[in-house]
Each structure stands twice: as C-alpha cells, then as structure tokens.
Amino acid sequence: MEDEVDRLVAAWRRERPDLDVEPLEVLSRVSRLARHLDRARRLAFAEHQLEPWEFDVLTALRRAGTPYQLSPGQLLTQTLVTSGTMTNRIDRLAKKGLVERLPDPSDRRGVLVRLTDVGRDRADQALAGLLEQERAILAELSRAQRAELAGLLRQLTAPFDNIPG
Amino acid sequence: MEDEVDRLVAAWRRERPDLDVEPLEVLSRVSRLARHLDRARRLAFAEHQLEPWEFDVLTALRRAGTPYQLSPGQLLTQTLVTSGTMTNRIDRLAKKGLVERLPDPSDRRGVLVRLTDVGRDRADQALAGLLEQERAILAELSRAQRAELAGLLRQLTAPFDNIPG
DNA sequence: CCCGTTTCTCTCGATGTCAAGAGACTCGAC
DNA sequence: GTCGAGTCTCTTGACATCGAGAGAAACGGG
C-alpha cells in the first residue's frame, strides 16, 4: 500500500534527480506518523475530558509512585517544557482539582505538586484508553514485526537519549 | 543500548503491573524520535536562516515544479495548517522576499503564491542540509535495516494517509 | 438572468508556549 | 555570622497557531 511519503519522495526524485532522498523514506514517515498519533491521542483523551498536555503531567506524577508528588522542576525535565509553561499547567490542573500544590517541607523556596485521588483515577483511565487505541493502530503488524520495529527505533533514539540532553 | 522509553515502560510495569503496555514500545518511540528530529531540523535550518515552517511552505512550492506556484488553499492541504496561519506565513515569507503573491488570472477570488529565485535557492540549500543531517542520524542502521524500517512504518502510516483525511 | 450556495482568502480574538528575568530562599566559603 | 553565588518558582511580554466568521467572487438550477 502506498502512503503520502511515497508520493513525497516521488516528487523530489522528479524535481531533484541529482539528490539522494532515501533518508526521507524513514524519517519523514516517523514525523508524519507522530502527527497522526498526536491527533488520535487528542481524540482518545477527549473521552476522559483531558488534553494531551494534562495527560503528560498527570502521568508523570502517576509514574512517580506514591505519594504521587514531584516538584515543578522535576516535572519540567520529564515533560520538556519551560518553567513558565509548567506554572500555567499546574495552575489549570489545580483549578480542575486534579493536582494540588503543597509547600515543600524541606525547602521553603520549593513547592510539591501532588496528584489528587480524582487526578490519579483520570490518569489511569486515560492510559487504559490510550493503550487500547494504540493496540488497534498496531494491529497492522504481527507481534514479531512490532518487536522488530521497536528494536530498530531504539537504535535511532538511544543516541539522543543518552549522549546529549 | 537503553533509551528513555525503556525507562518509561519499566516505570509503568512497576506502577501498573496489571496493564499490558507493549504498544508504548513502538509508539512512544515514534513520538519521542519525532520530537528529537524537530529539534535537529530546527538547528539544521537555522544555518540557512529558515524556520521549519518556512521550509515546509517553500518546499511545497518547490516540489510543485515550475513555475513553482500554488494557491493558498493548495498550500493548506499540503502543510496541514489552518487558513489563518497560512495567510500569516505567506505574509512573512513575502516580506522576506522568498515568495510573492500574484493575482490568479483564472479566478478573481484567488491568489497564487510563487517562489522567487531566492526562495528556490534557499529551499534547495536547506533540503541538501537536511538530507545530510538525516543521513548522519540513520548511519546507526545498515541499508537493509533502513529499508526494513521504512517498510514497517509504511504499514502503520498507510491507513492514516489513505482511508480518512 | 437572478438568487442561493459554495468556494476562496483574509481578519480577528483567544490561547498556549517560550524566553528572559524577578523575587525568594539555600548553601558554602570565609 | 555574613555575603555572594546558585537554585527554584513565578511573572511578563512577544509570538505563532487555531477557530470562527466576514467579504468577494464563482457556480448552477430555475
């Protein structure tokens, strides 16, 4: 089956026959698939009244384990947004009752963000929904193919995740 | 070599041992790799004084072939942004002298956006730089592995690209 | 022809993000 | 102790995007 990247590559070969555009076969597909996934996730989360960014923050806290609390700084590094953005996000999540701000008992500059019970349940439900949807997308592939794909992708992501920042 | 997704998956298995999180092994890697690629591309384009969105628009015109012109509407569908955004983008590219607006001779409601010579050269140079960088990222894999990866990704993207919109 | 519908592009207001910096507090050297 | 550098969170202003809708022109049935 043909996809958009096949058409993209064909267009480049026509317009720039001097260039080797083979890298696009892999990396343009990665980018485009990621975009499709973003849209699909937005839909899946909407069923739980969550935005993707809310899911990101809530699950970071959820993965931390009890008592489900992290500093805003720790949340920054996990979600890769800036501090101004995180302040805004915590404000909105707190207003919705999904997290609460607590003073950090060991550092009076600091704050701890803790998941409320409601927040934990919402995160758990949204994760279950996400996994269900992702399983449907991956049904195109056999178990062996999925493992193969995961392994090849790991080879590409590992340098980014380990060497720099 | 371990990557962030391995750590992510391990955290979920600890916190939610009841869930099968195998889909994350593939799809979280796709999303994270796409994010790394975005950052890398931003850097590569900066050497040519281009933003990623500028590259998107210029190369859409470039791929169209001579005379390198498309309507704003055609650019919308290729770049997947809204019309308000495209108007803004064309304004800024025109101000930089990379594209120009022409009245559409066959439809007085319409406009044609045409790549200037400067714009075409910038697009060509930026594409060459991008491909060079992408080749470096893909050097982790053998030619056969790249072909395998492209094929598996195509199986996942094809349903999105063909069935819906 | 004429009028309603559709198809274009652009305008406008709201929103989320980033980058830079301010303010509060901690920590270590002296 | 005290001072300066470092750390942490929040504030502010700029900016790109989206979504809804306005205005202009094309299209097509009666």
From TrEMBL, chains A, B:
Gene3D superfamilies: Winged helix-like DNA-binding domain superfamily/Winged helix DNA-binding domain
Keywords per UniProt: DNA-binding, Transcription, Transcription regulation
Domain HTH marR-type per the UniProt entry, residue ranges: 23-158
Entries under SUPFAM superfamilies matching the protein: Winged helix' DNA-binding domain
A Pfam family per the record: MarR_2
Stored SMART domains: HTH_MARR
Keyword Transcription: yes
UniProt superkingdom: Bacteria
Keyword DNA repair set for record: no
Protein name, UniProt field: MarR family transcriptional regulator TamR
Organism: Streptomyces musisoli
Upper taxonomic lineage: Bacteria, Bacillati, Actinomycetota, Actinomycetes, Kitasatosporales
Gene name of this polypeptide: tamR
